[in-house]
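Task card 7
Instruction: Convert sequence to structure tokens.
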Amino acid sequence: MEETKIYYSKDWKDYELLDTGEGEKLERVGNYKFVRPFEDAVWVKSLAKKDWAEIDGKFFTSKNNKNEKSGWKLNKSLPKKWEINYKDIKFSVTPTPFRHFGFFGEQASHWDFIENSIKNSGRHIKFLNLFGYTGVASLFALRAGAEVTHLDASKTSLTWAKENQELSGLSNLPMRIICDDALKFLEREAKRGNKYDAVIMDPPKHGRGPNGEIWKIEEMLPKLLENVRKVLSDKPLFVILTSYAIDASSLSLKYALEDALKDFHGKVENGELCLLETSKKRTIPSANTAIWKSF
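Output:
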């Protein structure tokens, strides 16, 4: 019988999922509180209305705000950006037009796994972060001693990643930051013979590369994994695949990784990335993931 794991961190201090319900989630990001849509919350809210009202910002969609444009309604005193911390890795956050804050709190368990796996490997690790966003996962790999390549198609995200590297005091460590289309980059790396020991990727459902390349995960994921396989070293350490787009089951990601990496000696585990909800002390799923590891 297939085993599905629940991944979450108990160690957050600067982020907190306060409550969920009725299509929304109430969060604390540093010293500020926000409400964002959470369509999977098909249950009633636990906290009182006043708790949901005493906030610094709310993201509206056309579904919950028919009289106004979709987007943030923010407290005017809110700073443009502010700093938060997870296990002494520092990064700046802000409400973005895409409803995010510049990090995904449920991925903290992956950050722990990345740092611990690299530290315990006992060897030099070349780490590749595809669709790397603002670079938090890359910083944990960097601190663990890896040689990091961080890639994203968004110049804004890459500038943010550089800022986060500086905030954490890791600017003196080797991190290549590259603006490129993931598939084109992998194809070139394979031709150049460049290899990586560890890879993490969080491909979007839809997107465009820096030169307008069109990305659709349903069509492109098998090709992406095929190209990742071509740049893996002879003894890879791990490959992490996360998806907010494929929400039917993490088994889909597991089977895709198993098929792509069948020539390597290792195993794949799968499950859900979750957050601990303060109001009811339960784990709330946010994304599906699968991890291939050689140990």
